[in-house]
Design brief:
Elements: H1 12-31, H2 60-68, H3 76-87, H4 92-97, E1 103-104, E2 109-112, E3 115-117, E4 125-127, E5 137-140, H5 168-182, H6 190-205, H7 208-215, H8 220-239
Antiparallel strand pairs: 1-2, 2-5, 3-4
Helix pairs in contact: 3-5, 6-7, 6-8, 7-8
């Protein structure tokens, strides 16, 4: 298997990208009758790589820039994705997995219950569960973002995408358009939003258990490992 030939230092993210490409190849081979099943779909297969370096948060100025330019984002789809991403410590797949039945606009609460993953770039997979049991949670969102959300659809429709979840390729398009509409100077990276929001909550509350709960982490040690380092770099950057 190609993964066995990769360096021991290969990052998990790198292996995930290789898996996406191989999954497409195996899927076509199954469709053409060349192989009986896709080996990457076996539940026993675990592809693990070296953990990626802690993600750097965006600066206060960068987040303020995006927030102040929400109204400049032309497409409802793009504006909704950005408003949710910069307001809540959601995993990228959790944002895409939100359905309108998960959004209580009266109480301003989001129920995190589902995810959308991308085993292939153009065939998103909806999963009625989260990464871990602890990831199932309710999050309050600021009422100020309500005007920037799309018009409410049917309960079983996706908040981002409507009847069908957006693909990996479509998400790239969303990010590029936001960059253009907001004149943002850096690449839009979904995971950096989660890190930034979590870092901000940590800096404001100094409550590790609260941050852990909002992130959906199984243990406070996991939260501390990833976000204490990010907070230190965030504070260092702000002091310069």
């Amino acid at each position: 298997m190609v993964f066995n030939q990769m360096s021991e230092d290969a990052k998990q993210e790198t292996k995930n990208k290789v898996k996406i490409v191989l999954n497409q190849i195996f899927k076509m081979a199954v469709d053409d009758g060349l192989i009986p099943r896709n080996p990457l779909q076996a539940t026993s297969m675990k592809i693990k790589g070296k953990a990626a370096n802690a993600t750097d948060p965006y600066s206060v100025e960068q987040m303020r820039h995006l927030a102040s330019h929400l109204g400049d984002v032309k497409r409802d789809l793009d504006r909704t994705w950005l408003a949710l991403s910069i307001s809540l410590p959601l995993r990228p797949e959790e944002v895409l997995g939100l359905k309108w039945e998960d959004v209580d606009t009266e109480s301003c609460v989001i129920h995190v219950r589902n995810t959308v993953t991308h085993p292939t770039r153009n065939e998103p997979e909806f999963k009625p569960y989260t990464k871990t049991a602890s990831s199932i949670r309710d999050l309050a969102f600021p009422r100020e973002i309500l005007p920037f959300l799309s018009e409410r659809g049917k309960d079983d429709e996706f908040v981002i995408g409507g009847e069908k979840a957006v693909s990996y390729t479509q998400l790239r398009g969303i990010r590029k358009r936001i960059n253009w509409d907001t004149h943002f100077g850096e690449t839009i990276t979904p995971r950096r939003f989660r890190t930034t929001v979590a870092t901000d909550i940590s800096a404001e509350t100094h409550d590790l258990k609260l941050v852990q709960k909002m992130l959906g982490h199984a243990t406070p040690q996991m939260t501390q490992k990833h976000y204490d380092k990010a907070l230190a770099r965030f504070q260092e950057a702000e002091q310069k």
